[in-house]
Amino acid sequence: MCIVTAVTLTLVLVIITALAFDFTNGFHDTANAMAASISTGALTPKVAVALSAILNLVGAFLSVEVALTVSNAVVKIQNKDGTPIDALANDGGQTLLVIVMAGLAGGILWNLFTWLLGLPSSSSHALLGGLTGSTVAALGWAGVKWTGDGTKLDGVIGKVLLPSFLSPVIAMAVAFLGCWLVHKITNGVAHKLNDRHFRWGQIGSASLVSLAHGTNDAQKTMGVMTLALLASGHWSDTHSVPFWVKVSAASAIALGTYLGGWRIIRTLGKGLVDITPRQGMASDGATASVLMAASHLGFALSTTHVATGSVLGGGLGRGTHVRWSTAGRMVTAWATTFPLAGLVGALMFWIGHGIGGGTGAVVVFLLLSAGSYWMYRKSQEHKIDHSNVTDEWDRPKDVLDQGNPAAPNIGTHEVPFDDTPTTMEEAPTR
């Protein structure tokens, strides 16, 4: 008779939870690459998410360079070679498995919560926040790595705080300049010719972002799964990732991408600024160029923050109305991602570790499942999918509307801005 040990049961639940996080990462971050292309009509919604899914799948196999030490960025639960630290290896790896599972739960619940609200936020920061919270609950504040060793930007400051501030600012500046230059250069070209060529440019830029996302984000799940296998004694090679881990992680992020995080796609594509094809190409190009440059320099930037900053910068460079209330909600989500995911991770660890053994892991998994199901049910009350993701966004009243209470459609790709400095008579508010 085969008896399943507590460690084995917890390991299985950690693997399932890690793949669930990878899945939410996929649909949560689809908007980063494809929101602008869908908004401008460069790609139909279903074609866009299918293309992004394929490129995420391919990207996931391109590199596993940092997979084995992914958690080392912010917490001290691994040695430099990727093996668990001695303090967490004495009980067969059970405590480390609960830390990882609780951290993943914090990341998943935050991803689903921001998806329910239609707010783009960093899945990477949610995962790192969850792991930090569960590690603090287990080891105390000494388990957190606040800064690096001086050779590179690392720790909570280098991997979370600085990127949170710099990512959108850099991308916004690049997109603003790019969009302004594009409009200055192409003002004399017929709009139809403009739109056709710029839509192709959008597709190319968006494809690069999808490829980069698959390469970067799938590694995180591969690393967490491999760490769990090392902790439980089911894997010993600290220089490679099991092939089945690569395939499952790549498939999970691709499947999540294909199903599409339509709520966030709608917010980023329609709720922040009204995007024209020229704006879209400038924004997607800025996102791709900033991410590739940062990767080459070894500086970790959030794809979500870069993409959002690019869309906002493209809108400002074009002179499009910016919905600052939406932007404000996004910034609030960014600022609270790390601490709130960390709080959930800590609570989940206290529950799982307090109950103990496999039973504690099962309880954490059930709580995660219940919270996830509740948010899914709430999302069905106002469903957003490929059929209504590009519907016009109600223009909110904000500071830019004072003394200018009309013209809901000016600046969209249906009713583009006139590039010449003339006075526009605005349509009455609908």
Give a written overview of the molecule.
This protein is mainly α and 430 residues long. The chain has a domain at 19-149 and 208-277 and 323-400. Helices cover 66% and strands 0% of the residues. The protein contains twelve helices and no strands. Helix 1 crosses helix 7, helix 1 packs parallel to helix 10 (303-318) and helix 5 packs parallel to helix 10. The longest helix is centred in the middle third of the chain and has 42 residues, at 191-232. It starts with 5 loop residues before the first helix and ends in a 51-residue tail after the last helix.
Q: Mean of the pLDDT scores?
A: 81
- What count of helical segments does DSSP give? 12
Our Rg estimate from Cα atoms comes to 22 Å
Distance between the termini: 71 Å
Low-confidence stretches: 395-430
Q: In summary, what is this structure?
A:
The protein has a domain at 19-149 and 208-277 and 323-400. The chain has helices spanning 6-40, 45-60, 94-117, 123-139, 155-186, 191-232, 243-259, 262-271, 277-297, 303-318, 324-355, 357-379. It has 430 residues and is mainly α.
